[in-house]
Write a structure and sequence with these properties.
mainly alpha, Four Helix Bundle (Hemerythrin (Met), subunit A), 7 helices, single chain
């Protein structure tokens, strides 16, 4: 199910912590996607600033930190791939989660952290009242809130694996729908067919 190599997940987590973030790669990727959905395009440096700076977490408009050192290449690559994926339904957007070789409990916990990061990123991007959003977005964000509070306890059974895969797919498609609703493609920008939730 995971589309990012496990080594990349661990590397991103380490880099975020080296830069002062307490979150891992799942939370960091969730924050980035939340910002992209609520604010629109945000560059890599502004994303990391939001992750590591308490003062920046309260700002409404993302901006570069003056004099900030260039970001490590893996973070820039994650940023660019995410921007590309979330804007193009044909390219393929995927959540950054541990790969399938990790215990299911670890992956479930990472999914809850991803959802927590996404909701936090929405707030950082200026969304303060989720109930004022379009109906479809309200429904999905409510589900994300529920997932973010879910227990990671699991038996690791085949049924649990299937349920987890379906949940990840629901979140993945849901994020694309939120982005489509809040950041619609301008007219004439190409065929951006809206995905559907099942």
């Amino acid at each position: 199910m995971a589309q990012w190599p496990q080594l990349q997940f661990e590397e991103i987590s380490d880099l975020l912590q080296d830069l002062g973030s307490t979150g891992n790669a799942a939370e960091g990727h969730g924050v980035l996607c939340g910002l992209l959905c609520s604010h629109g395009y945000i560059n890599g440096q502004a994303w990391i600033t939001r992750m590591v700076s308490r003062e920046a977490r309260t700002a409404h408009t993302p901006s570069d930190a003056e004099g900030a050192a260039p970001l490590p290449r893996p973070l820039l690559d994650l940023h660019s791939e995410t921007v590309r994926g979330i804007n193009d339904v044909n390219y393929g957007f995927h959540l950054m989660l541990p790969d399938d070789g990790e215990d299911l409990e670890v992956r479930v916990e990472a999914l809850t952290e991803w959802c927590q990061g996404f909701l936090c990123g929405m707030g950082m991007g200026g969304i303060k009242d989720f109930s004022a959003l379009p109906e479809a977005v309200v429904e999905i964000t409510h589900d994300l809130m529920e997932i973010s509070r879910a227990s990671s306890a699991t038996t690791g059974s085949e049924e649990d694996e299937t349920a987890f895969s379906e949940l990840v797919e629901y979140v993945r498609v849901g994020i694309r729908l939120i982005h489509e609703e809040l950041q619609p493609a301008p007219p004439g920008s190409g065929d951006q067919r809206k995905p559907t939730l099942h």
